[in-house]
Amino acid sequence: MLDITAVGKKIKEERMKRNISQDELALDLYVTRQAVSRWELGLALPSIDNLVTLTKMFQISFEKLLCLDDDIILDEQNIFKGHDRNLIIKGILDNALDIDLPKVFYQFTQAERLLILKAVRNKKVNVDINELKQKLSTVELHYLRGGKIHEEHGSVFTISR
User: Fold this and answer.
1) Residue ranges of the chain with per-residue pLDDT less than 70
2) Does the N terminus or the C terminus of the chain have fewer Cβ atoms within 10 A?
3) The CATH number of the domain where 25 resides is what?
4) C-alpha count within 13 angstroms, C-beta hemisphere, residue 127
């Protein structure tokens, strides 16, 4: 999975190394300046055609432009800082990230917490379960033990007996 935030930073870094403005890059790629801005902010990715052109313009490989060989370094104070949120969640669900899950569990949204707890419950995520239990709400503990949870009003979760 691509870390679009890292890719955006790489595009900006390479563009600035060459003293090219967003407007100039946009003209060269036949896109809007807003498109370039969205790439650099990690909100979107360039098309395949534009990626090919960027690798030629910047004289770098696809791997380097797409940050495929970069290690994911997480700041425990904010594990999402500088990274695509979905990449971090997928990394946790795939056991691909070395992370102290109980220590950072508070940083996840309620929906993300339930997604991770589902994987823990199904023994797909490696975690010290006793440490994690100390960080959970009553509803989350109930869910972890096999209970059901219902979503009401968009984000309020309730237990069914």
Assistant:
1) 151-161
2) C
3) 1.10.260.40
4) 30
- Residues whose CB falls within 8 Å of the CB of residue 36, separated by 6 or more in sequence, listed in order: 11, 15, 22, 25, 26, 29
For 117-145, what is each residue's pLDDT tens digit? 999 999 999 899 999 999 999 889 988 88
Which pLDDT does position 6 carry in this prediction?
Answer: 92
- Tell me what pLDDT residue 158 has: 55
Q: Which domain holds residue 115?
A: 100-160
- 78 located within any domain: no
Q: What is the total count of domains within the chain? A: 2
89-99, pLDDT tens digit by residue? 999 999 988 88
- Rg over CA atoms, the chain: 20
Amino acid at 20: I
